[in-house]
Structures are given as structure tokens and as C-alpha cells.
């Protein structure tokens, strides 16, 4: 009787492993999901500055000098536009929230392009 129970548990474990093998995403899918794609936009500095003032100065300061969040005055010399875009979309652990539900993709791309020019 004990052998039958162990055989059943083994069979169930194998079946579960096969199901998971075909349903879990692969490395490529996870990497693609992890890095959002920036939409093509033409930068509008006025709109970007207005969005930053409305959403970012609480943490990054009214002159982007930093505060609760890091200084963004020279962020373009540290990160490229894609990395800035990804950070705004996904946020960062330790306090930076995601803005994907607060701003449109085009607005985030515009802000990322504007910040990337800060060198």
C-alpha cells in the first residue's frame, strides 16, 4: 500500500513539473517584460517641465537638486534615456514609485528625454 501512495505522489509531482515547464515564461520573455519599450515621441520641453513639477519635485526638489530622492540635475550624464524611461515606468526599490499608472507612456518618454539632456 505504501508503494502505491509513493508512486501516486511521484506521478503527481512529475505531472506538475511538466505543466510548469510549459506554462512558466522563459528567460527571453522575462527580460522583455522587465524592460519596457519607450515609444517614439518628439520632446516638448515645456510639457516635460510641467510634468516634472507636478509629479517629481516633492522628492527630487524644485530645482531637481534632490531631497528625499536623488538629485536629477545631471542625471543625463549618468543614465541614458532608455534607463531613465525604465526607472520612471517601473520605479525603484527603496522609494521611487512607478508612474506607469499615473502618466501616459508618451508623457513618460517626454520626461525621460528631457531629463537625459541634463548633463
UniProtKB/TrEMBL annotation:
GO cellular component: membrane
GO molecular function per UniProt: electron transfer activity; heme binding; iron ion binding
Keyword line: Electron transport, Heme, Iron, Metal-binding, Transport
Pfam families given in the database record: Cytochrome_CBB3
UniProt domain Cytochrome c: residue ranges: 43-119
Positions with a binding annotation for heme c: 56, 59-60, 96
Mod. after translation: Binds 1 heme c group covalently per subunit.
Alphabetized InterPro entries for the sequence: Cyt_c-like_dom, Cyt_c-like_dom_sf, Cyt_c_BACSU-c550-type, Cyt_C_IC, Cytochrome_c550/c551-like
Gene3D superfamilies, A to Z: Cytochrome c-like domain
SUPFAM superfamilies documented for this protein: Cytochrome c
PANTHER family: CYTOCHROME C-553-LIKE, MENAQUINOL-CYTOCHROME C REDUCTASE CYTOCHROME B_C SUBUNIT
Name under which the protein is recorded: Cytochrome C
Organism (species): Paenibacillus xylanivorans
Lineage of the species this protein comes from: Bacteria, Bacillati, Bacillota, Bacilli, Bacillales
Amino acid at each position: 500500500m505504501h508503494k502505491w501512495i509513493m508512486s501516486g505522489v511521484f506521478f503527481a509531482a512529475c505531472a506538475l513539473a511538466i505543466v510548469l515547464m510549459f506554462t512558466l515564461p522563459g528567460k527571453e520573455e522575462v527580460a522583455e517584460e522587465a524592460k519596457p519599450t519607450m515609444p517614439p515621441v518628439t520632446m516638448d520641453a515645456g510639457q516635460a517641465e510641467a510634468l516634472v513639477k507636478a509629479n517629481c519635485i516633492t522628492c527630487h526638489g524644485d530645482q531637481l537638486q534632490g531631497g528625499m530622492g536623488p538629485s536629477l540635475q545631471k542625471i543625463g550624464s549618468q543614465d541614458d534615456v532608455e534607463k531613465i524611461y525604465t526607472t520612471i515606468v517601473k520605479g525603484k526599490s527603496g522609494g521611487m514609485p512607478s508612474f506607469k499608472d499615473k502618466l501616459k507612456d508618451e508623457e513618460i518618454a517626454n520626461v525621460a528625454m528631457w531629463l537625459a539632456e541634463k548633463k
